[in-house]
Amino acid sequence: MPVTSPQTQNSATGTAPAAEPTLRTGTLGTSDIAFFVVSAAAPLTVMAGVAPFAIALGGIGAPVGYLLAGLTLAVFAVGFTTMSRHVRSAGAFYAYITRGLGSSVGIGAALLAMVGYNGMEIGVYGLLGTATQETLHALFGIDIPWLPVSLAGLVLIWYGGFRSIDFGAKLLGVLLCAETGILVLLAGGVLLKGGGHGLSLASFAPGNVFVPGTAVVLAFAFAAFTGFESTVIYRREARDPGRTVPRATYIAVAFLGLFYAFIVWTVIQAFGDAQVVKAAGTNPAELFFSAITTFVGGWAADLMHILIVTSVLASLLAFHNAINRYGLALAEEGVAPKSFGRVHAKHRSPYVAGLAQTAVGAVVVTGFWAAGADPYAQLLLWVNTPGMIGLMLLQLLAAIAVPFYFRRITHQEGVLRTVVAPIAATVLLSVATVLVCTHIDLFTGATTVVNIVLIAVAPAVFVLGLGLAWRLRRTKPDVFERFAAEPDAEAETV
């Protein structure tokens, strides 16, 4: 008697084989995706932790630096979002780059994206440890080691990524409202009381903007937007992705650019144009806490300490979710381990990719601890910096890819969107990348040798990716040819 397969038995009984679970489609709206993106940028942490250095080194014209960075990325978003209406692949950056510049460059970009996003997330566990230490010491006089905090954070973030994407969106929405709310409270207090020495618009005067320190401000400002482009990673889980993804991208860029500039300006007003640069240079870590204590109250400073910790957690969760979806997409491409493509039956999350990412994070964090490294100066800055440069290079490659892509297809998009804006973005992003790399010592505080190594990581990873592409072309030509191919239209709407 012949033995029948399960598939044959299902056909004989009229039942279809059980389908593998997939990501939950049609779940995320524009605001949900925007929450993920803005949370990744960690506005409160960027403002309280980084903006004082921008003021100290760039002067009172610092708010304009954030506006210029936002404008540059808005120009980039024009071509990027136009292409998003045509490219339905799940791989975000690498899919766009592949369609414009070919599979070899796309595979190099895919490896760069994985390393870049992991660098942006894993380094922040050092910040979580130090921020929690400082908060507990400031509020309760308690001193704790940083490693248990960072490891606990790894578990919390793993759980947040393990749960459904709508759970993550709701959680990030609450955390983001809290961290932006405390900054709005600070701004309101400063404006209502007329600032420390009256309100002034001198920050926007050309004489205060076009100064040597502006290059430094721009370097800090571009770094403050890192991760905004991750909107397209959630395409498969978005409602009406052709509209939702572009809207979320523009909202994220506009919000961050305007919000950063406004908050930095209000803090300048809190101390006065003549005094703020000295205050920021003397004690940058206390600039925002001092301002909110003076104009709102000590209780608000205590709350800000707590919300910096939740801001860091929100950023970690946002990057973790993005990394998991990159891992899932690469598993589907046949480049990453097949297990990374498994989706949880109940939560519809890429849980194996999440476990792998958490394991990598745990190894890096404990490795830095075992080496006696400083969690902020080394774990955060030395791991974060190559990740930031990697994501900036990805933005640059994506901008270059746009006009090449539209030359290859028949379309009805205008020249402004497909040629002019992408070329302008390429020039502007090239300048931004050079600014960041030439002022890298301001980010790391490290020696010249260390800085050279940190800058070299991203291009080295990209070259390794090109080597992987060459190997795949020889050993797995079918995987190479199908890389970042368009999904079936029917599959996307399931």
The H/E string reads HHHHHHHHHHHHHHHHHHHHHHH
Low-confidence stretches: 1-13, 488-494
What is the CATH topology? Amino acid/polyamine transporter I
Shape: globular
Q: How would you name the CATH homologous superfamily?
A: Amino acid/polyamine transporter I
* Structural category: mainly alpha
Distance between the termini: 39 Å
Strand percentage lies at under 5%
Based on DSSP secondary structure assignment, what is the total number of beta strands? 0
User: How many discrete domains?
Assistant: 1
Compute the number of helices.
23
What is the CATH domain class? Mainly Alpha
State the helicity in percent bands: over 70%
User: How much is the radius of gyration in Å?
Assistant: 23 Å
Please name the CATH architecture. Up-down Bundle
The main pleated sheet reads as: none
Round the mean pLDDT to the nearest integer and report it. Answer: 89
Description:
Residues 37-478 form the Amino acid permease/ SLC12A domain. Residues 1-14 have a biased composition (Polar residues). InterPro entries: AA-permease/SLC12A_dom, APC_superfamily. The chain crosses the membrane at residues 33-57, 63-81, 93-117, 137-159, 171-192, 204-228, 248-268, 288-319, 351-371, 383-406, 418-443, 449-470. It is found in: Membrane. By secondary structure, this protein is an all-alpha fold. The chain has one domain: Amino acid/polyamine transporter I, CATH 1.20.1740. It contains 23 helices and no strands. The chain has helices spanning 6-13, 30-41, 43-49, 51-58, 62-84, 93-101, 103-122, 124-140, 146-162, 165-192, 206-209, 214-224, 241-271, 276-282, 287-295, 298-333, 351-370, 375-408, 415-438, 440-444, 448-475, 477-482, 489-492. Helix 5 packs antiparallel against helix 13 and helix 16 (298-333) crosses helix 17. The two termini are 39 Å apart. Residues 1-13 and 488-494 have low confidence and may be disordered.
